[in-house]
Specification:
Number of strands: 6
Shape: rod-shaped
Oligomer: single chain
Radius of gyration: 47 Å
Strand order of the largest sheet: 4-3-5-6
Low-confidence stretches: 210-221
Mean pLDDT: 80
Number of helices: 5
Amino acid sequence: MTEPAPHRPFAFDTEFDASGVVVSPSSFRPTKRAYSPIEVDALLAQARLEAREAALAEVGSLQAMAVTAIGEAVAAGAPALTHLIRAHREQASHLALVAARVVAAAALDRFPDGPLQAALEALGQEIDATPRLVIRSCGLDEAVQARMTQLCAEAGFSGLVAFRDDPDLAVAAFQLEWADGRAEFDPDAAHARMAEALASALATEAGHAETLSDGSHSDGQ
């Protein structure tokens, strides 16, 4: 049941002065129980406006809360994502180094004289005046010696070429010795230097990398 509205005893609280002019009007305001259609439309429009403003305010608040939550989630996940990107970069770099070593090994097996030829061409002026050139390598049979002698002649060297067979050297590895200098090439040592340079570059990059919130090395075998 609907409880009746509480009744207030009537109090005549209007004050007048001696001449009958109202000094303080009564605070009593009767409850309005009937509204015209125009008033009803106005009240409905006002209610819709207030409801819309309240809904927009709530949506804005929810949006702000969502943006804050997203920012906190990104900030929390940024270090792990940075570490994952760094690990992926290191693994990709080492994979590329391993692939390069495989390709280089296949190329040296097919063209074992390539490094020696490149070295003789690069050292042409240095060894041109020396009377004797010593070549140390492995598997120096007569055919290999003849081929290396031809390479020296093609590089412009006209002195004596002496050969020293060294079974401890790897395939395509060699050592050149002449009166004023020495040069050598070892595929394994070259790969080790490349791996060391790569590790140093990755370590330097990791030390200067910016985290996403603000702005392990393993030898490839």
